[in-house]
Write a structure and sequence with these properties.
With 283 residues, the chain is an alpha+beta fold. It folds into three domains: 75 residues, LysM domain (Membrane-bound Lytic Murein Transglycosylase D, Chain A, Roll), CATH 3.10.350; 45 residues, Membrane-bound Lytic Murein Transglycosylase D, Chain A (Roll), CATH 3.10.350; 123 residues, Glucose Permease (Domain IIA), CATH 2.70.70. Helix content is 18%, strand content 27%. Strand 6 and strand 7 form a beta hairpin.
Length: 283
């Protein structure tokens, strides 16, 4: 117990900026330990040797890190070079005025000459009353060509279904090579179903970093990306909401970690936004 208090005390000093990190490393940021992670896994994610992580945080027992523990993450100090040296910077993260929360699979429809509420409803699987309610249109109002209507859709689905799902806000966490984490990790048992949150077009992707991965171009105009799948469960092409995409795993650079789905949301197919707000609502 005494030994653990001493280690905790050293960690507090480091986090307060009062402890000196020995060797050619200096503190540059922090990392919050997640469920199932070890010091060696944190070292692999951040690119910092285990020994340097242990030294920076006053840890003598490298197997003793706990979920929620905040670690100081040092970076290597290099010898001064001759002449001006450019400042290294990580890729900037998108900044939004408010959180993005995906509520349902709503999509847009541009009214054409001759369209009626009943005709649009029949083609989109809705009803005239739902169309008017979703768009704030009073009964008796005429449709105008080129007007854009919101077509209501079913509620958004959590992409991991069939068991317990754990997650935390890891948006912006450091990654090797100056990268940042631009998604959320959904932890579940290996083999847990991964499904389409909305209907859309499915594309399979793979690589040494992502392992087995997919990209879903949703009917709602958003793009969804998932990585580290254990298996793929359907062919690319049209897929409906709730259909099986694959299963949770730890492929790619997640090999040896707790099985999880790395999940991203790209509104309008543009840059990623923090998916934690949507995941908190539906998972």
């Amino acid at each position: 117990m005494r030994h653990w208090r001493v280690a905790a005390g050293l960690l507090a000093l480091v986090m307060a900026g009062q402890a000196h990190v020995s060797g050619p490393w200096s503190r540059t940021g922090t990392y919050t330990v997640r469920r199932g992670e070890s010091l060696s896994l944190v070292a692999r994610k951040t690119g910092v040797p285990v020994a340097e992580l242990a030294r920076a945080n006053g840890i003598s027992n490298r197997d003793r890190v706990r979920r929620g523990q905040v670690l100081a993450i040092p970076s290597e100090r290099r010898a001064p070079a001759k002449g001006p040296v450019p400042i290294a910077a990580s890729r900037p993260l998108p900044r939004l005025p408010s959180p993005v929360v995906v509520v349902d699979g709503s999509r847009r429809y541009q009214v054409r000459r001759g369209d009626t509420f009943a005709g649009i409803a029949a083609r989109t699987g809705s009803s005239a009353a739902e169309l008017m309610r979703s768009n704030g249109i009073k009964r008796g109002t005429s449709l105008r060509a080129n007007t854009t209507l919101k077509i209501p859709g079913p509620p958004w689905l959590c992409p991991v279904q069939g068991g317990r799902v754990d997650f935390s806000d890891g948006w912006g966490d450091p990654r090797p090579g100056g990268r940042r984490h631009v998604g959320v990790d959904l932890f579940a048992f290996r083999g847990t179903r991964v499904v389409a949150s909305v209907g859309g077009t499915l594309v399979h992707e793979s690589g040494s970093r992502a392992g087995l991965a997919y990209r879903l171009r949703g009917d709602d105009g958003n793009e969804y990306y998932g990585a580290h799948l254990h298996s793929l469960g359907t062919r690319p092409g049209r897929i409906e909401r709730g259909a099986l995409i694959g299963t949770v795993g730890s492929t790619g650079n997640a090999m040896g970690t707790t099985p999880h789905l790395h999940f991203e949301i790209h509104p309008g197919g543009a840059g990623p936004v923090n998916p934690i707000y949507t995941v908190q609502r539906w998972c």
